[in-house]
Amino acid sequence: MKQNYDVVVIGSGPGGLAAAIAAKRAGAHDVLIVERDVEPGGILQQCIHNGFGVEALKQDLTGPGYAQRFINEARALDVDVLLDSMVLDVTPQRRVTACGKQAGLVELDARAIVLSMGCRERTRAQIRIPGARPAGVYTAGTAQRWVNVEGYMPGRRFVILGSGDIGMIMARRLTFEGAQVERVLEIMPFLTGLNRNYVQCLLDFNIPLQLSHTVKRVLGNKRVEAVEAVQVDERWQPIPGTEEIIPCDTLLLSVGLIPENELSRQMGVRLDPVTGGPYVDEGFQTSAPGVFAAGNVVHVYDLVDWVTEAGLIAGRSAAEFALGKTGTQPAQRTCVTKAGENVRYVVPHRVDAEALTRGPVKLQMRVLRPMEEPVWVEARAGDDLIARHAERYARPGEMLSLDLPQKAYDTVRRAEILTVNVVRRKS
Prior knowledge:
- The protein is of the alpha/beta class.
- The protein has three domains: 1-120 and 257-330, FAD/NAD(P)-binding domain; 123-255, FAD/NAD(P)-binding domain, CATH 3.50.50; 331-427, no CATH class.
- Helix content is 21%, strand content 32%.
- The strands form six sheets. Strands 1, 2, 3, 4, 5, 6 and 17 form a seven-stranded mixed sheet that branches. A five-stranded parallel sheet has the order 8-15-9-10-11. Strands 20-18-25-22-23 form a five-stranded mixed sheet.
- Helix 2 links the parallel strand 2 and strand 3 (80-82).
- The chain is globular and about 65 Å long.
């Protein structure tokens, strides 16, 4: 182990691997990945279904296959990897304290840091499901690891709460293993995952989806015996008389993901209360100089290819900072992005107009409510239209993007706020 590194990356999922590779390519000599698991790759190692790499690699790969491509490249570039080690502390001065089997307790000094810890699932306690506390209530990701990695089936008869992508994918996976998936319940009046997963994982296997429904209580003594489902109104309150008992032995939760930002909060990085991730600029630098963030630790992405893209940007930016090619302080004159009409949030949170001299800057966002009609995704500085992109529809479960063109440099440089809207496209 070395004491000093140009770039230290925390987490070896797709964002962390891409960041380390990009940092090396950009000229950083000493790059280290710290990973708490016993192998790199992050959550991809348990995602044995295909659909990874279609955009980034132009190939249709499984999760482990996609991860291995980047693991091999990181090794070929001589990126150091510290496995089975937990990061205990990160200071604003970029000192990293970690502990693990390989090196014991170590303290490392970094010229730049990339936070790439990913996200975690919401649990039963966080959504406050009433009822007994029997065995058989798990998050969908936990069940995914048991089935795909450990070879253990957590049950035979399932109800899945939440239409997130992991839940729908597990509905199909459990069906492959001979289990009965009774139905998927979703408290929102719309799908919260990708439409393609709804088609491929639920419709193709005749698994019912009930929107505006949730679990009112869990029934059972030592083991789940049934759940009581109920329809909810527009305020998510149970509608009396719509209760239904659904016999099952397992309840899986796919009710959202939370960016893993305990380290970020501990070191004083400013967090966005909407996304749960750090405020970042177009290079994914946080409010702490020299500290960058990549992937699902910033906001939850739909596709791993987009996580990789963000990791490449963050890693390149971190290397430029470490090598002194960019300033040691965030740009003082930046334009703040603002969520406008039917937009829940926008990332990045601020844009330096100088970044436009190197190419377009991509904004990414999610809408508040579905619009099943042609829409404009647009950015405005006051009354000035900066950029506009047409989409056939807009759904909360599918992230939208908009490129700020290089020709917008002068307007962005003068503007204080860029407002992003998703509005109906008139014929």
